[in-house]
Amino acid sequence: MVARHYPAFWQQKGWQSGLLSPLGTLYGSLAQYRRDYYQRVAPKRSRPAAATIVVGNISVGGTGKTPLVNALVARAQMLGFRPGVILRGYAGKARTVTQVSAHSRADAVGDEALVIARRAQVPVVVGRRRVAAANQLLAHHNVNLIISDDGLQHYALPRDAEIAVIDGERGLGNARCLPAGPLRERPMRLNDVDLILCNGDHHPLCTGRFSLIPGPLEALGSVIEPPTPGMRIHAVAGIGHPERFFNTLRALGFTVDGHALGDHHDFRREDLIFADEQPVILTEKDAVKCADIAPANSWQLPVTAEPDTQTAGQLEALIKTAVVRYQHGEKRL
């Protein structure tokens, strides 16, 4: 069950959430049953031949996982490791395990995979079966650390460390499971992860935080002079938390006409065409799907996950811990 939009009632325990709470309780129970099952069969599963770190969340909607994965890749490289990334390739049409390059098509491998391949410039493999994706990554590339973008609930994949990401604005919403709230698992699941990182404002559950720092606008169309602060622009976002993107642009000084679409929206040219000639600005995740349809005055805004000093140290320590756990054969889910 995946939501393309984040209903307002997920942020509070009102009558709508209460009406759906029995279904939420059932969903949470089934999620716990799945996890218990994989914990029982864990010793029988074959592990990928490298340390594995999962970056995920227990809520739906955008939390900033993909920029954090890129930051974790860079941190691992600074420590001398050779990381590669696996992910499902959500919204991509590929039905088998597929290697991703900077020239792959987003409609085949998914937007997040293509962003990582282009920004992190490390080996990337997508596959619904994460273990098969990890094995292909190791078979075809000189990798000694696997980072999984999402997959916290993909328990078929053994892992040596887990990072859960929480959106600082939304937190855990009303703390209920789907469809009564935004959670994929009960809040107590966070007790078992290694790090809980907050994107933006500090959340009391978090052990660290990072910020999404915008970079210079990058042209998608033929116009080469980027829009400047003070201008009115169209901001189009098919992501889990579009208002965060709109607020980022406002903070940069733009007057924003925001157009929120569903998460992982399948863009068409008409989504980007407006009656006026205002510039159109997209997220990087959306832009990789729009190269062939973007109007002349179109731009993407890349962002970089920047952890604070304490969190940067935590990430480095966790990478080392994951490798030690793998080398010592320690039992982890």
Describe this structure in words.
- It contains eight helices and 14 strands.
- The chain has 333 residues and is α/β, with parallel strands linked by helices.
- The protein has two domains: 45-174 and 189-211 and 307-328, 3-Layer(aba) Sandwich (Rossmann fold); 216-301.
- Strands 3-4-2-5-1-6-7-8-14 form a nine-stranded mixed β-sheet, with helices on both faces.
- Helix 7 links the parallel strand 12 (280-283) and strand 13 (298-301).
- The longest helix has 27 residues, at 15-41.
- The protein is globular.
In short:
The chain has 333 residues and is an alpha/beta fold. It contains 8 helices and 14 strands.
For the record, the count of structural domains works out to 2
Radius of gyration computed on alpha carbons: 20 Å
Quaternary state reads: single chain
| N- and C-termini, Cα separation | 23 Å
Low-confidence stretches: none
Q: How many helices in DSSP terms? A: 8
CATH architecture of the largest domain: 3-Layer(aba) Sandwich
Average pLDDT confidence is 94
SSE ordering: HEHEEHHEHEEEEEEHEEHEEH
| Sheet with most strands | 9 strands, mixed
Q: Remind me, CATH topology of the largest domain?
A: Rossmann fold
CATH class type of the largest domain:
Alpha Beta
Q: Rough shape?
A: globular
Order of strands in the sheet with most strands: 3-4-2-5-1-6-7-8-14
Number of strands: 14
How big a fraction of the residues is strand? 15-25%
